[in-house]
Each structure stands twice: as C-alpha cells, then as structure tokens.
Design goal:
single chain, about 100 residues
C-alpha cells in the first residue's frame, strides 16, 4: 500500500513539475465535479440544474483540454461528448 501511495504521489509531483497550470486546472475541475455531484445528490428532488450545468460544462471542458494536452484521444472524445450533451441540456433548460 505504501508503494502504491508513494507511486501516486511521485506521479502527481512529476505531473505538476511538467505543467503546473494543467495540474492545477485538473484539480480545480475535479473539485467542481465533486461539488456538482454532491449538490445534485443533496437536491435530488429539486436539483439546481440552472446553476449546475455551467459548472458541469466548465469542468468537462477543462478535463477535455487536459486530455488533449496528454494526447488521450478517448478522453478528448468523451469530454467533447459530455460538453455537447450538457450544452444541449442547458439550452433546453433555459428555453423552458
């Protein structure tokens, strides 16, 4: 277990040294994702989609950009799809 945690820590440290902005934005997007998921779970009977959709879109766009810089085709495709779905959902919500 110690080797696993040490390996993760070393990988994160190297990732930060290689591109601090990307690392920081990915951490921020991760917190946005957690915040949205917890807010959605807490307000499941009356979710605040008007406020959550823009944050979902932003964090997916950040993750997509980070995946692009890592040359991860599958992840880029995934985040393009998620951003598209969330933008369509947000537009539909606004037009209700």
């Amino acid at each position: 277990m110690k080797n696993l945690l040490s390996g993760i820590y070393n990988w994160a440290k190297t990732d930060y040294k290689e591109w601090p902005t990307r690392f920081s934005l990915e951490i921020a997007a991760w917190f946005m994702s957690l915040g949205c998921s917890l807010t959605l779970a807490a307000g499941a009977t009356d979710p605040l989609f008007f406020y959550l959709y823009p944050i979902f879109i932003l964090q997916c766009a950040i993750f997509g950009w980070a995946a692009w810089t890592r040359k991860s085709t599958g992840m880029v495709a995934n985040y393009i799809l998620l951003v598209t779905i969330d933008v369509v959902g947000y537009i539909r919500l606004i037009n209700m």
